[in-house]
Each structure stands twice: as C-alpha cells, then as structure tokens.
Specification:
With 171 residues, the chain is mainly alpha-helical. The protein has helices at residues 11-14, 18-37, 44-59, 67-74, 78-90, 112-136, 138-152, 154-170; strands at 5-6, 9-10, 94-98, 106-110. The protein is built from 8 helices and 4 strands; from the N terminus they run ββαααααββααα. Helix 3 (44-59) packs across helix 6, helix 4 packs across helix 5 and helix 6 crosses helix 7.
Length: 171
Amino acid sequence: MNKTENNGMNVFEVLACTNTALRRAARRLSHLYDDALAPLGLKATQISLLCEIERLTASNAGQAPSLQSLATKLSIQISAITHALKPLIRDGLVELQPDKDDKRTKRGVLTPAGVAHLNEALQHWSRANQRVEDILGVESAATLRALADRVASDEFLAQYNQDTSAETERS
C-alpha cells in the first residue's frame, strides 16, 4: 500500500478512522462490563439481549418480540440473534415460542429464571455503568450515548445511503 506523505507525515499517522476508534472503545467497554457480569456467568451482550426482550415485551402490551424485530432493534442479523440465544435457552433463561397467528414466527420470552437472572445482572451492570460514567463525567457519557444512538439510527443509515447515492451519481 502506498504511504503517501502529507507534510512529512505518514498518511496512516493522520488518518482518522471513526470505525476503528468506535470498535476499539466498544471492545474496551465490553470487557469491563463482561468482567462485572462474570460472577453470573453472563456476557454484556447476553444482558443486552435479555434487556431488549424485556423492554420490547413491556412496550408491546406484554407480547414478546419476534426474533426478527429483536434483530432489527439490535441492528444485527437474525442468524446472530439465534446464535446468541442458544446459551440463554440452554440455561433456561429464554424460551422460543411460536407466534399465535404465524407459527413460522418465533418469539423470545424471558422465563421466570430469566427475569430473576436479569434483575440480579442489572445490579452488577449498574455498578459498572456508574464507574464508566464517573470516569467519563455525566455530560461526556450522555454525549457518547447520544452519538452512538444517532449512528445506530435508521435516519443515519438513510442519510449515509442517500449521500453515497449522490456521490455515485456525480462520478
């Protein structure tokens, strides 16, 4: 690869890659939260999944989310959801139930053990989250969450795709 010089600096020294910075930060935070949840035998990704099932169920008049709606909400592939659910199902924290109207559609439901485990995990998660916020500061932590939510939004994706289409047309 050509290392084009820019005012005497290697291009890789001045290149700012948002993706690399966010992935590195996400890995660091994931490790911190994983460590906090280790006594329960859960990973931060699993707690996020349990939380999202609970949140979507509560916001939908008690109807558990379909795996597709869960994947969409978490911005991941359906195959990744099924893979992530396997240990939670194995451990009796989540059940897959067929939809009443469409038996092909599966819904993720927290079991009573899943609800209890989630409540206990939230205590560990809360301590880790508070430590992160203490270190970053309340305002910086809120800004970080807001920016991450913006990047994860459908509006951001639509604008990115629109801008990419416009660039292609100009070329």
